[in-house]
Design goal:
The protein has a 5-stranded parallel beta sheet, sandwiched between helices. The protein is an alpha/beta fold and about 140 residues long. Helix content is about 50%, strand content about 15%. The chain is elongated, with a radius of gyration of 18 Å. The protein has a single domain, classed as Response regulator (Rossmann fold), CATH 3.40.50.
């Protein structure tokens, strides 16, 4: 079961997203600010973060930077009710999987969630395969000196 963290300062958004994602059999945590979200990331194995851009104290872009520095395989979907193209481009350049504007289309949220989790799974599998190939120290043959 995949684990998703929703970081948004709006209780209604957190509640609706949590209900929808739990109906799809995802394990969901919520946080009402960036600091609480980062603390949860330290404690739990999170596969995907749905992150609001505009929050008090620590904005979503700063949280995104910290997530990507510390948890590079964790995908992040940014959401905002006050979005503009420049902000969306900046978020994607910093490593966000995608950017959604509020009000959220629940079908779009579910589609992006599935796609982001699939990408996260493929990145982890790719890393495991690379490590397996690089750790293979078997001698195949012996050359004369």
């Amino acid at each position: 079961m995949n684990t998703i963290l929703i970081i948004d300062d709006e209780p209604g958004v957190r509640s609706v997203l949590k209900d929808i994602l739990e109906d799809e059999n995802y394990h969901v945590f919520t946080a009402d600010n960036g600091y609480a979200g980062l603390a949860l990331l330290e404690k739990e194995a999170i596969d995907l973060v749905i992150l609001d851009v505009w929050m008090p104290n620590m904005g979503g872009i700063d949280v995104l930077k910290k997530i990507k520095e510390t948890y590079p395989f964790t995908e992040v979907i940014m959401i905002s009710g006050h979005a503009n193209i420049d902000l969306a481009v900046k978020a994607v350049k910093l490593g966000a999987f995608d950017f959604l504007e509020k009000p959220l289309s629940l079908d779009r949220v579910l589609t992006l969630t599935r796609n982001a989790l699939e990408l996260e799974k493929l990145k982890k599998e790719n890393l495991q395969l690379k490590q397996a190939v690089l750790s293979n120290d078997e001698i195949i043959g012996v050359s004369p000196p």
